[in-house]
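Our example copied in:
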Amino acid sequence: MAPRPPSEREIAVELGEVRTRRRLCWFLAGFVVLLFVLFAVHALWHGQWAKAWPGYVRGLGLSTVVVNLAWLRMLCSRCPRCAHWFFAGGRLSDPGTWRPFAAACVHCGLPLDAESDKARGD
């Protein structure tokens, strides 16, 4: 027996989760850049670069790990309509198939900002 297609409500809820994951990635990436700039300005302004860099390297390393985990979680989101990877087409080992800035599913074309299929006119 074939699985039933997802309802419009299920599609809308799951698309909301994909959008939330994407926003979290952008927020964390911006936060890391802001931390880097603030630290560099503080260290250069006060002339304490030699004392501060070990803590800076640890903090930057930890924040890089957190951002990469959030990025992978976003990239591994599944499309609620076709159940394929939302941001990856083709073989996953090929880096050219990852499209993290795609506005629609790379397989079925479901827009990321769609609330349901009816909103698209299907």
User: Anything to note?
Assistant: Confidence is low (pLDDT under 50) at residues 116-122. The CA atoms of residues 65 and 71 lie 10 Å apart. The two ends are 25 Å apart (CA to CA). The chain has three helices and no strands.
